[in-house]
Each structure stands twice: as structure tokens, then as C-alpha cells.
Amino acid sequence: MSAAAPVAVVTGAASGIGAAVCRALEATGWTVVGVDMRRPDHLAHSFVCDVSDPHAVKAAFARIEAEIGAVGALVTAAGHYEFAPIGEITEDQWSRMMRVHIGGLLNPLRAVLPGMIERQDGAVVAISSELGIGGTESEAHYSAAKGAILGLVRSLGSEVAGHNVRVNAVAPGPTDTPLLPAAQRTPEYLASLPARALGQPEDIAQAVQFLVDEGGFCFGEVMSPNMGAVI
């Protein structure tokens, strides 16, 4: 990519998958802007912002466009996780899960899509989860939120494909990040995975980088590097 290439914005950039995506996109020449609730100190350009707050997101992305440049790629990796049986999920817990995951995709999308459509060019990659595909017990609100991301990606992928804007998703399996619960680090759990190991953030970042830089034929697709958890 040339030095004049548009910027890539990565939400949830401070750690885990988001930080790995930042590194992968920087390596291919993007000017990466990180957005997170805490400042991503590994980046030259970063903004502190709650992606579930539409007004904060609108203001942050307006500054990005004005101060850094047009957004050519958006990766939404901000996340929230908690474990709870369905009968114990409170209204606040359900609402927070949806705000962070669906709002964390929809709010940035509303900020960048008009410009991408006007320029007839752009790439969006949403981080979902294999639990949005397969589901599991005691994670209904998380699985529902991650599954809703896939529905939005598939619908929007069709809607904006004619404008040369590519909207896709990556649905990781159990990945070695700070959000991974202790129960998914035990030898017994690892033995249940066909790969017998956790995924690494760099694995997921490689899938994201492909969809941003090379996947010009992908529209509304879901890549799921999940260590064989869902086959």
C-alpha cells in the first residue's frame, strides 16, 4: 500500500485481538488508528472512546477524518464477555452485551459508511465468535450478540457490495486473550478441541488482514478460525 492510503480504524485496539490486528495492518502499510476505552499506547494515533455510545463514536470518527484522513478500513474488535446461565442474566447484563457488540459495530459503521460509499471503496471486518455460529450453554447473551453481528454483516454485505464496500466477519474460536475465561484454559478443555490448543491473536489478525487487503471477492462472508471448535 502507498503512503497515501486511507487509514484503518480498529476498535478494541488496546489488547488481545484488536492489538494484533493493529500490528498486522501496520505491517502492510496502513496508518492505523486505535479506538478503545483505554488508550492503546502502542499506536501513534489513538482515541479513547466507548463504542457503545453513538454520540461519542460520532465525535471520535469526525476527529479521525478531520485530523488523520479518510477511513478506508474499519475493524470492530471491541468486546465484552461474562458467563451466566439464562435464568441469571439480568436486564442490565443483556443490554450491556448488546450495546457493546451490536452498538460497537453499528455506531462505527454509521460513521464510516457514507464516506466509503461516496468513494466507492472500503473494507469493514467485524469480529464475531464461533459461539455466534454454534452457541453453548450459559453464554446465551454473548452468543446472541455475536450471532446478531453475523446477521448484520450478511445483510449489509449484500446492501453495499454494489458500491465496492466489502463487509465481512471473522468468528474466532477460543483465543488466548484477556477475555478468555479460565475454564477454557484447562487441559481438559484443550483436549476437547480438535487442534488441542488455543488460537492466538495473531491467527485472527491474519484472517482480518486477508479480508482487508486481499479479499476483494468477499462480501458478507464469515471466516471462522476456531481451532476446530465448530466444523
Roughly what percent helix? 40-55%
Give the overall average pLDDT.
93
Query: Could you state the order of secondary-structure elements as H and E?
Result: EHEEHEHEHEHHE
Largest sheet, spatial ordering of strands? 3-2-1-4-5-6-7
Number of strands: 7
The assigned CATH architecture is 3-Layer(aba) Sandwich
Q: What is the helix tally?
A: 6
Calculate the terminal CA-CA distance, rounded to whole Å.
35 Å
CATH superfamily descriptor: NAD(P)-binding Rossmann-like Domain
What integer value in Å does the Rg equal?
A: 17 Å
- Looking at CATH, which topology would you report? Rossmann fold
Outline: globular
Q: Indicate the CATH class.
A: Alpha Beta
Low-confidence stretches: none
The major sheet is characterized as: 7 strands, parallel
**Which structural class do the helices and strands define?**
alpha/beta
How many domains, as an integer? 1
Task: Report the β-strand fraction as a percent range.
Answer: 15-25%
GO molecular function: oxidoreductase activity
Keywords: Oxidoreductase
Pfam families: adh_short
Protein name: SDR family NAD(P)-dependent oxidoreductase
Question: Would you write up a description of this structure?
Answer:
It is a single chain. The chain is α/β, with parallel strands linked by helices and 231 residues long. The chain has one domain (7-223): 3-Layer(aba) Sandwich (Rossmann fold), CATH 3.40.50.720. The chain is built from six helices and seven strands, in the order βαββαβαβαβααβ. It has a seven-stranded parallel β-sheet with strand order 3-2-1-4-5-6-7, sandwiched between helices. β5, α4 and β6 form a beta-alpha-beta unit. α1 (16-27) packs across α6 and α3 packs parallel to α4. It is globular, with a radius of gyration of 17 Å. The mean pLDDT is 93. It is an enzyme of class 1 (oxidoreductase). One of its GO terms (molecular function) is oxidoreductase activity. InterPro entries: NAD(P)-bd_dom_sf, Sc_DH/Rdtase_CS, SDR_fam. Its EC number is 1.1.1.-. It comes from Nocardioides ginsengisoli.
